[in-house]
Amino acid sequence: xKNSAWDVGRSLALCIVSLLLxxxxxxxxxxxxxxxxxxxxxxSIGGTxxxxxxxxxxxxxxxxxxxxxxxxxxxxxxxxQQTGTSYTVTxxxxxxxxxxxxSSGTGSVAxxxxxxxxxxxxxxxxxxxxxxxxxxxTVHTAVIDxxxxxxxxxxxxxxxxxxxxxxxxxxxxxxxxxxxxxxALDHPEGLNAPLSMTIRYDASVVQDENSLLVVxxxxxxxxxxxxxxxxQDKTAHSLTFDSRSFSPFLVASATAAPASFxxxxxxxxxxxxxxxxxxxxxxxxLGDAVFxxxxxxxxxxxxxxWYYNTEGTNLYGAFPxxxxxxxxGSTDPPSVEQIIAIRAMLAQSQFWAGLNINTEQAFGTxxxxxxxxxxxxxxxxxxILLLLAPNAGHAGVLYGYDSNYFYFYDVNHPGxxxxxxxxxxxxxxxxxxxxxxxTFGYVALPSLGRTLDFQTLTTQATQGFSYESTNLLQVNSPxxxxxxxxxLDDFTGTLSSALPAATEVVAYVTGSxxxxxxxxxxxxxxATLPVVAGTVQMVWLAGVALDQQSNWYANxxxxxxxxxxxxxxxxxxxxxxxxxxxxxxGTVSLTATFTGINPPPSVPAPNGTVTFTDQTSGKALCSGVxxxxxxxxxPSVSVMGGDIVLATYTPGTYDYYNSATASITISSDFxxxxxxxxxxxxxxxxxxxxxxGIISGxxxxxxxxxxxxxxxxxxxxxxxxxxxxTLSDAWAWYDAMNNSYDLTKTMTSTxxxxxxxxxxxxxxxxxxxxxxxxxxxxxxxxxxxVTVQFAKPYTLTASCTYSAAxxxxxxxxxxxxxxxxxxxxxxxxxxxxxxDPNSGMLTYQLGAGTYNIFWVVLGCCLGAPDDGSGPxxxxxxxxxxxxxxTQ
Length: 887
What we know:
It contains seven helices and 60 strands. The protein has 887 residues and is mainly beta. Strands 50-51-52-53-54-60-56-58-57 form a nine-stranded antiparallel β-sheet, with no helix packed on it. Strands 12-15-16-22-18-19 form a six-stranded antiparallel β-sheet, covered by helices on one side. Strand 57 (834-835) and strand 58 form a beta hairpin.
């Protein structure tokens, strides 16, 4: 029988139902319902609350739920969480009058209850506001005191203090204590030194007050930084530190530092250790420079730390560095890198530029070393290391440590990686450049300057300091590279009209530890500045307002870096064992010494040489004689009478003394000077002009000898010689009645002197003076003089003749008024002469020495009337006076 379609469908349905029943019943085997899976394991999230005041509550959140804690002690969030659950605990609501910080509040649930979350609630002290003037002072608030020393603020500054929540990113190795204290200044650029601040903390929540630090949040970099702490008062529960950067400050507690650490930088997962070869300078610190006695070390150390922290490249080789600037005698301008170093030093306040620091920092060496280790390992930033010797201060970069040493970079030595012993209790010593440093401290960047300062400096350096090479500011005198006398010197210069009208000019000078504001007028400036011995470096700034002098400014200003040498300008004195030699020459010993200077003991003795030269013959007598403190000698050299000997000092390398010269003249047995005009007189009235001649004295018309001492000196030129000179003068006669000169009645005077030396014979000197007198002259007086220097005894004879008289010149009053009678008066001779009654000759026996011989010829008619009615010269004639000196 065939099945219908309905039957087939019915059979399939029954099969399906049967199959379903079998599956649903376990195949008819009779088994029960399977057990439920086990519940997931969960763990609590909690910790402790410390310092919460009675009656207060703090609302906490773990990112999942909240809990209100109203008593100090343990706490847990209401719901336990499974393994792998992430949590971040924050404070949702702060208790009244307190501020709570969470430490160890972020993580993931593992296989244990979370109990390490620490909530520390500290009392919040109120802030306030106040003002600081240029004379210094303190702004007091309950939470912090802000103090400025006199001169620290160059303009009045208003300060506002508030308490705020610590900015994000607080170092996990530190535990914050209380709220952050935000110190805001309306004119931070007006500071010329860091401000000292004393911040107070809640000691009730601090387990160990020796572990406290102060940190600063730099709003320019959004990073926390350490500050320079000087002291702690455990009675008042306060810490004193300083800073030139202002934004939130926070007290924190630190745990122990790792046993060893080298500063690292870079984003997470990319770590680079400090390397002095990469992160230091490739120029040396120039000592004895502008801003302190010890060079640019502080600015170089600070800039290297800043560059390492903020820039993505190495400082070494980042800027052009090749220049001989700073070396002795160099006239090169500074390189870009040297300008950075100079201006990085200037970026520091003068407080720091002078290294006026308390390097001991009042903690004791053990606590100081501990703090330095904690700061290095916590912030992963180098510190500026301060080193102090009895007579020197220095700075470097501190970048690591281990159990026995601190590791640092000395800016005096490019690429250096040096060790400073530290045994956990005390420091060892470090010696460099003759100084042994035994006292140490640290400075953190906020004490030195703002990030903006260094960032602007870097931008200008990248541009090559283009505006510094313009002519906006020039020093004209003295010229750069020239020697400048040690002491106070005048400097002058010019300013471009492109600079603002209110431009101020400031100069920083080697060794002066500060700036000098210059006197100035439109387009010019002047200053009297101290110059020290050695290399002189000056930084001149124009267009700089004093309230911005420690910071960087727009390119409308100008800077000039000036270098020269400060040298002592000595007086060189030359002496000889004898200043007189025989006419044929002789031997002398010469000595050159410095006089007129009094350098301090720290200035080295001169190290140049002296050359002795006979200028007359051109012969070198002694060459390259070293100059010592007692002088330089040139013994037993041959010279001639009349020789001029020259000593020349040539400075040595690194010499603090400038070049100098001195000379002396060596005399022969005799030497004389002719002066044909001394003692001449021809009338009674002085006038200033006369037709026909130039009148320079009473009635005298100058002729062949226009000036006094025009005869000069005779000098020997060999074994045999003869020198002579002839001098002439013309005279007019004064008519007193008519107040005029009679040029027809003149008198001429001729003086001739001859010096003769024949080889092998005794030298002699012959002088004669002749006057020609016209008829009609009256009241005539003429004369002459000679200065003679005798090295040996000489015999001097003097005689006089008158051509119109039968007898020789008489010695006394004229015998006849109608004749031109003459008498001779040798003057200033030290002994009476012998007189020949027949010839009238005078003879003098003269010893060695110098004699001035004046002779006067008194002519006709002394006492004659001025109108000419009395006696006159009756006949023309000549008068001759003759002198001869022989050995």
